[in-house]
Fold this protein.
Amino acid sequence: MILITAVDASGGLLFNHRRQSQDRLLRARILDLTGDAPLWMDEYTASLFDPPASNIRVAEDFLEQAGPGEYCLLEDRNAAPYLEKIEKIILYRWNRAYPGDFFFDIDVNQGWQKVSSTDFAGSSHDKITEEVYIK
């Protein structure tokens, strides 16, 4: 699977129980990136996409259901238990830190190779960095 997530400068996924991936231009970029490929997520994350794109697959156990080459958008759960399934990580980083209360649990500096890094402007942040990692 290809894991997609958004973190702040401290690796936080959620701050004050609010998501990092709220940015509308980020969501549009994710839909462009995934194209027609399945994009798995839970109900919480699916609520961001209104109307939902045709490639979105919703399941509470989406990390178990996603197959090779399929995308997963993760916001509010641990990814490390699925490390063996993850082929690639697409990490969106905000250029600031928030008072996080839930953090990304994979250290991309251990066993992962950064193959690209691209900055773009979002709707809520002037700079969002897209980093792509492979094993």
User: Anything to note?
Assistant: The CA atoms of residues 6 and 21 lie 6 Å apart.
